Amino acid sequence: MRLRNVLIVVKDMERSIKFYHDLFGLDTVVDQDGNVILTEGLVLQDEKLWKKFLGREVIPENNSCELYFEEREFDCFVEKLERLYPEVQYVNRPMTHSWGQRVVRFYDPDGNLIEVGTPI
C-alpha cells in the first residue's frame, strides 16, 4: 500500500489553482469534474462534492492538519507571498524555531493551513 495523494477542499477551484501555482509552482495534472490533481500529489476538491460525499459541513481554519513545504530561498518566498497575496491570514509570521529552522504559517483562501520552512 502507498499514499497516493493529499486532498483538500476548496470553494473556488480557479482561485485555488492560481494560488498553488503562483506560490508553489504546482501545475494541473488532471482536471475532472470538481477534482483537480496538481503536481506533487495535491488534490483540490470542490466543496460541493465534498459535502455531497460526506454529508457534513466543511470547517475552515480547523487547525487539525497542514500542508508543509520546504523552501531554500525563504526570504524570497515570504516577499512573494506578501506581494501576491497581501490579504493572506497568518497563523505565525516568519519566525525561527529554537533548532534554527525558519518558518511561516498561513491559511490558503479556503482556510487550509500551510507551513513553509527552510530545509531541516
UniProtKB/TrEMBL annotation:
Pfam families (UniProt xref): Glyoxalase_2
SUPFAM superfamilies: Glyoxalase/Bleomycin resistance protein/Dihydroxybiphenyl dioxygenase (SSF54593)
Entry-linked InterPro entries: Glyas_Bleomycin-R_OHBP_Dase, Glyoxalase-like_dom, VOC_core
Superkingdom to which the source organism belongs: Bacteria
Official protein name in the record: VOC family protein
Taxon lineage: Bacteria, Bacillati, Bacillota, Clostridia, Lachnospirales
Domain VOC: 2-119
Coiled-coil ranges (or none): none
